[in-house]
Amino acid sequence: MPIPFILAGIGAIAAAAGIGGHMEAKDTNEMANSISRDAQRLYDNAKDSLENAQENAKSSLSKLECTQKKISETSIKTFMDAVCRIKIVEKADELNKISRVNLDDSFMIELKNLQGVYSTSISTGLAGAAIGSAIAIAGSGMLPIIGSTLSLAAGALSFGGIGAAATLTGSALSMAASATPLAAIAAPVLLFTAFSANDKADENLEKARANYAQAEAAAAEMSISETMCNAIVKRADMFDNLINELNDYFSPMTDLFDQITSSRCDASNKEMLDQSDFNESELKIIAVCISIFQSILSIIRVPFFNEDGQLSIEAENAYNEHSKNLLTFSEYSSPDSIATAAKEMKQNAVSLLNKKSVELLSQLSTLKEVSYDNETLAEIAKAEKFIANIMQKNQYSADVSYNFNHASAQEAFMKASELSWEINEAVLVLDSMHSLATVKIMQYNSFAEYYAEKQNMCLALEQLNMKRNTFINDHIKKLLVSYHLLNGFFPSEIRDYITSDTALFNEYNVETAAFDTIRFSIIPEDCHSANKIFLNIYNYCNEVQSASSTYKAISVIAEKYKELFNCESIDIFKQTSATIERLINEKVAIIGKSDLTPINFTKSEKALLSFSLQSYYHIRHILSLKITDNSGTVITDTDSVCNDIKRESVDIRIRYNVLSKIDYSQTPIKTRFNTFYGNIIFIAAIAIIAIIILSMIHNLIPKAIIIIGIMLIIAFICVGFINIRSRSRCYLS
To answer: Are 272 and 85 within 8 A, CB to CB?
Structure first.
């Protein structure tokens, strides 16, 4: 066989093998390109879907932000303007009882602080903080977007060595078809390039598969971000709907709140109103407005994401909590509820006017019964005509036709509020008249009590003085007269103190207050003048009642002092003073002298005199008690004083029981020897007799015995003088 044919055969075999290898490489590259295109398509689809979700999240959040800003610049601004006209009640319970809404004290304090620093920028600044951060996160930040690296890698696969291998394969196939000798030369090349192409194709396939895995991972991450964006869209739309629903209730109630406060400030000429300036229906409107504002403010401030970039549970809880309040708010802010509140307000105002007029007429009827002057009766007649005119002016029908939409319901509510305010003004006048009639009755009652207590006091003092003066005249003066006959019996300072004790003879005198009746009109010029008159008369009546209380206290003290004259020490003193009077009179009659000395009394009689002096001090304590001090103030410690006196009385009784066992009926010595000089003569006579006897017998006995006898006589004389002197100085304790 010729060599060319052999070579040609070998080349054909090699070419066939090379072509087969290149065909396999081509299939591998096509598979790699297909995988790369799938990876690119998977990535692009995930990216487009994520970007679309992000745009939706931005759009929903922006929509929510716009809603919040709109509400802040309209309803919330109106609300804050109205809130600045009232004094916020810090105790939320007071409003909760009226409206049955859920306000808490901490929010009321926060609202008060907002009120204090309020400006128009605050209402617009309430929205945007939480939403702005949510939009920023939705745009980048915590929601990642895969970059273009994978896309470039896929492009390199499409335009790399795989295309060149395909071209070479085509030319080799053409040469094989021509079966030229060149084929024998190209066949080995084709065979060896087939091996290279297969290796490159396998490498491309691995890269394509790796890119696809990356594309799957990126798509999964973008799917997570897309899920979060969809959740943001859902939550933002939920909050947007919730805020819009709340604003549907908040806006008309806020308009009412603003109209009520502005009209009330104008009518009352006040810059700040308090709770007393509103009736119950208006307070319900105010409470509901504050409660809805509390819900809106909580929703605006709630963060969408936590610190980890996840949707916060706090936002979900806030949504669920405030969604429950929609039903309550709908009950209060619906046209039917507002219209019903207006009707109730009108009826309540008329009912209050009727009630106050009935109360005042009843009070005037009471005043007729207690009054005693014609001027007051004339004032009562004027007041009754005045009440009739007020009732005729303000008595309107409570039947009103209502169209149940917000505009007409609000208009009806404002008309009812204006009527309620006018009637409240009339009620204030009736209240003022009621206060004046009350204080007039108080004046009459105070004077009646005053005169009664004054009369009782005068009677009690008169009885006390009578009891006291009778006791002084019947017993004290007689005892003092008896004491005057005792010379040297008491020390001079005690005797002078007793004889000069003239304060006991003074009577109890109490200065009585003088009051002039205040005259005033029951119909006031205005509430301010009525309050001023009321305070003046109230203070005046307090002074009258204070004087009555003083006189009553004096009467009580006088009764207590009068009871002291029933103590057993008084009876003992009466008995003792009578005994002493009788004893001294007998002494004077027997001895025949006006001044008595201690030597004229026995030991038992001196003990009686000593006891009488102590008893006198006890009685003097009773007689010297005061009812008022030097400033005219009633003494308040009379109970303790009276108790001390009663204890002293018991002690007097105990001592008297001891002395009563002594016999005071001894007959005084009738001889002159009972006198001081008689005793001296008696001692001198005994001494002379003793000396005579000694002189007669001095010759019979020794001189020593005579000296001893003379000394004994001298000692006897000295002892006698000492005894006389001691008996003449009987100091009584």
So the answer is: yes
Q: From residue 65, how far is each of 124, 135, 180, 290, 704 by CA, in Å? A: 11, 10, 80, 22, 147
Whole-angstrom CA distances from 599 to 58, 576, 643, 705, 709 are 130, 21, 39, 36, 30
Please say whether the beta carbons of 423 and 350 come within 8 A.
yes
The amino acid sitting at 377 is L
* Nearest by Cα to 277 from 409, 465, 407, 87: 87
Which residue type, as a one-letter code, is found at position 543? Answer: E
- Give the side-chain half-sphere CA count within 13 A for 105: 4
**Helix, coil or strand: residue 90:** coil
HEC readout, 372-418: CCHHHHHHHHHHHHHHHHHHHHHCCCCCCCCCCCHHHHHHHHHHHHH
Distance separating alpha carbons of residues 507 and 727, to the nearest angstrom: 41
Per cent of the chain over pLDDT 70 is 68
Quote the pLDDT of residue 230: 87
Task: Map out the domains of the chain as residue ranges.
Answer: 3-333, 674-728
SS3 labels along 494-551:
HHHHHHCCCHHHCCCCCCCCCCCCCCCCCCCCCHHHHHHHHHHHHHHHHHHHHHHHHH
Q: Determine the Cα–Cα distance for residues 546 and 288; give it in Å rounded to an integer.
A: 49
At 349-380, the pLDDT tens digits run 888 888 999 999 999 999 988 887 888 889 89
d(CA 606, CA 596): 12
Kindly report the length of the chain. Answer: 733
The Cα–Cα gap between 273 and 265 comes to 7
Residues with Cβ < 8 Å from 627, sequence gap 6 or more? 461, 508, 510, 554, 557, 558, 561, 634, 635
Mind spelling out the 3-state secondary structure of 311-326? ECHHHHHHHHHHHHHH
| Mean pLDDT to the nearest integer, 405-420 | 78
Give the closest residue to 134 by CA, choosing from 310, 298, 319. 310
222: tokens are 């973008």
Give bridge partners of residue 86 from the DSSP assignment.
273
Q: Please give the C-alpha separations between residue 543 and each of 306, 444, 457, 535, 610, in angstroms, as whole numbers.
A: 70, 13, 17, 12, 51
Confidence tier at 733 by pLDDT (50, 70, 90): very low
Question: Mean pLDDT, to the nearest integer, of 648-657?
Answer: 84
Distance, CA of 35 to CA of 29 (rounded, Å)? 10
Q: State residue 402 phi and psi, 5-degree precision.
A: -120, 135
Angle between helix 406-471 and helix 374-394 axes, rounded to 10 deg: 170
Instruction: Confirm if 38 and 207 have CB atoms less than 8 A apart.
Output: no
Q: Which residue has the higher pLDDT, 161 or 21?
A: 21
Average pLDDT on 663-692 reads: 56
- DSSP-derived secondary structure letter, 660: T
CA–CA gap between residue 238 and residue 251 (Å, rounded) = 20
